[in-house]
Amino acid sequence: MRHLKKLASLLVALAMVAAMSVTAFAAGTNTITVKNAVAGQQYKLYRILDLSVSEDQTAYSYTVNGAWADFFKDPDGKGLTYVNIDAQGYVTWKTGADVAAFAKDAEAFAKNLTALDTIAASGSGDITFSNLEAGYYLITSTLGTKAAVGTTPGNPDPVIQEKNEVPTNVKTVEEDSTGTYGSTNDADIGQTVNFKSAITAQPGAKNYVFEDTMSAGLTYKGDAKVYTDEAMTKELNASDYAVNNDPGDGKTFTITFTQSYLDTITVETKLYVRYSAALNENAKVGLPGNENKSTLKYGDSTNTKSTPDSETITYTW
Fold first, then answer.
1. Taking residues 24-51, what's their average pLDDT?
2. How many CA atoms lie within 13 A of 214 on its CB side?
């Protein structure tokens, strides 16, 4: 997520004059708009820094919001990587402070906090956080969005752009007579059936878990692997994901992608899950066939989302 205006301008170390008279600025009149919010996703707002402005509104100062005090304390407060705090508690940004890195660390800290406001996007379009006090804010979403933006005298109503999209999962099955993948295939009892699920991973990905469920007529062979190319010749590093072949809850297997890997995704990325099963003696002959379905779960720890189920049918006659 990027600001429509250069966020760097918000990070310039503002002149903080401790001796000057300051008053609260325009409490409850500011807004932050998220353009192109995605339907069905949840957006959360946190105020990291409070802001006071001089009586003539020509200079202003940031101070740490109480809920974020530990984020700016030694020895574990990552906020001090990006800012300096003087004896009066005024905050100035360090030269070259990395906005994206700051937002990422702030998002991790915010998991233990209650959001100032939460909006569930009911449809695709813009959403607006309203009646805000001036300050410096963090916006997060179930799509992995994380952006930091300030509301100031010169910019009381900033607008930011949603760049992340919903991940996708599409399952196909191989028809052995042609070697092509589609939504259905035919097989004999005892025959091995090959499956492929294509996942579209998005920047900002959080908590991706692939879940697969096979019907009673299919016996999973425990061979799931993840590849980075559609030909499935380049396997994703084994350390970047973990396969659970006995997850319970009716699932056949799950694949959990490590957050350290997901954090490396900066552009839309295709991943391919390949696995196989044997058509067993419990297979349904004729219609309705033998189903295999999968879904991808994602989102933050408090609001998990899932892609629609994607399924294939294997017939035997």
1. 86
2. 26
Amino acid at 151: T
Please give the class, per CATH, of domain 168-315. mainly beta
pLDDT value for 50: 96
Which tokens sit at 210? 């692939």
The residue written with tokens 């740490």 in the block is: 64
Tell me the pTM: 0.75
Residue of 313, 273, 276 whose CA lies nearest to 293 = 313
Q: Rounded to 5, what percent of the chain is helix, strand, coil? A: 10, 45, 40
Give the tens place of pLDDT for each residue, 155-191: 999 999 888 888 999 999 999 999 999 999 999 999 9
> Other C-beta atoms within 10 Å of 31: how many?
14
Which residues in 152-203 belong to E strands, given as ranges? Answer: 159-161, 168-175, 180-182, 184-186, 192-201
The residue among 218, 217, 234 whose CA lies nearest residue 226 is 234
Whether 259 contacts 207, CB under 8 Å: yes
Structural contact between residues 176 and 195, judged by C-beta atoms closer than 8 angstroms: no
How much is the average pLDDT of 35-61? Answer: 89
Residue 1's CB: how many other CB atoms inside 10 A? 24
3 state SS for 207-236: CCEEEEEECCCEEECCCCEEECCCCCCCEC
How do the domains of the chain map onto residue ranges?
A: 2-161, 168-315
Residue 302 — φ and ψ, nearest 5°?
A: -105, -5
pLDDT of res. 93 = 93
DSSP 107-161: HHHHTTS--SEEEE-SSSEEEEEEEEPSEEEEEEETT--EEEEEEBTTBSS-EEE
